[in-house]
Design brief:
By secondary structure, the chain is an alpha+beta fold. The chain has one helix and eleven strands, in the order αβββββββββββ.
Length: 161
């Protein structure tokens, strides 16, 4: 009787392993990683971030405004206007200091990269047909998202292709 229980437990573990492997293979074959999974503005962006840092409201509070201008050749020229914030690429991956860091840019919830200055050319090839949400977050030197009262410090615009 003991050997039947032993083999029954082994069989269940083996079957569970096969199921998990099948799911993993299916996800890999679909070709879409978590980083490529589109997110909407309503979803919590923390899944895409490195962490969150609440700003100290006793100090100067950073803010951003994002503007988009049609580029005659392709896409849009984006202008990121910041207040109380300095881009510090020389301090990337160091300790956070309020009021400095870089920005992350997203199109339709997919991160395109980092911004170290106030201008960025968004090529049309990064846009899908129709409306696209472009979002820029302020990030600390250590890549954490700057937050104020639990909300990301960000700005967004909608552009069309």
């Amino acid at each position: 009787m003991k050997s039947m229980k032993k083999y029954g437990t082994w069989a269940l573990c083996f079957l569970a392993g096969i199921i998990v492997a099948s799911v993993v293979i299916s996800l890999l074959q679909s070709g879409m990683s978590d980083a490529e999974t589109p997110m909407t503005m309503d979803q919590d962006m923390s899944a895409m971030q490195h962490g969150m840092l609440e700003i100290d409201t006793r100090l100067l509070v950073p803010s951003i405004t994002l503007e988009a201008f049609d580029d005659e050749k392709s896409g849009y020229n984006l202008h990121l206007i910041t207040e109380n914030y300095v881009f510090t690429p020389e301090n990337i991956s160091t300790e956070p200091v309020q009021g400095e860091g870089h920005a992350h840019i997203y199109v339709n919830g997919v991160k395109l990269g980092r911004l170290y200055a106030g201008w960025y050319h968004l090529p049309a090839s990064e846009l899908r047909m129709g409306e696209n949400t472009v979002e820029v977050t302020l990030n600390a030197n250590d890549h954490s998202d700057w937050m104020m009262e639990g909300q990301h410090i960000l700005s967004s615009v909608v552009v069309s292709k």
